[in-house]
Amino acid sequence: MVPLTTGFRVPQAVVTLTNRLLERLDVDVPAARSLRGDGALRLREVPGPGEAPDAVVAAVRDALEREGSVGVVAADADVPRLRQALAGAGVDAAGPQALGARVAVVPASVVKGLEYDHVVAVEPAAIAEAEAPGDRGLHRLYVVLTRAVSRLEVVHGRPLPF
Fold it and tell me: Which burial class, exposed, middle or buried, applies to 119 when counting CB atoms under 10 A from its CB (0-12, 13-18, 19+)?
């Protein structure tokens, strides 16, 4: 079997970041590359994990200035707090099952197969730690980061696991 190493859906900026994570996974596949030079990546560090909701609201508002869907993806346990922060800021956010919603807040455990124009990945360390022992959490995080079709913004208060 020959591994797929060239992508068309995910922009190069995102692929470059996920290749850093790929190095930490127990897989024997070469680094990927994208044929898309467009797209954007932003790492938004906050003073601590408790500051993430405000930064997520700011990231979503920024994404809403552009066309396309916005997916806020976080560890399952953090989803209610983020939904509440967005609602408190007047941002209407649906769950992953609401087709056509402009903004969706999605638990990391169900994001596989979904894609959004703009992804706000919240606290990658928490996403990785939410899985069973081993590197399954890093695999889940890889899936989360590759849901972005145009822009990826990573909001974190803890050290990044890549």
Answer: buried
Q: Among all chains, which residue has been given the structure tokens 């680094």?
A: 31
Q: Which of 53, 74, 76, 62 is nearest to 117 (CA)?
A: 62
- Model-level pTM? 0.93
Q: For the domain that residue 139 is a member of, what is the CATH number? A: 3.40.50.300
106: nearest Cα among 129, 133, 75: 75
Q: In degrees rounded to 5, what are phi and psi of residue 41?
A: -135, 135
Instruction: Give the residue, 73 or 99, on which the prediction is more confident.
Output: 73
What's the pLDDT band for 92 if we cut at 50, 70, 90?
A: very high
pLDDT digits (tens, 9 = 90+) for 20-32: 998 888 888 888 8
Candidates 133, 134, 106; CA nearest to 121 is: 106
- Is the residue at 3 inside a domain? no
Domain span including residue 127: 40-156
| Residue 73 belongs to a domain | yes
- Residue ranges in the chain assigned as alpha helix (H): 12-22, 52-64, 79-88, 124-129, 136-145
Count of beta carbons in the 10 Å neighbourhood of residue 129:
15
Residue 46 resides in a domain: yes
Number of structural domains the chain divides into: 1
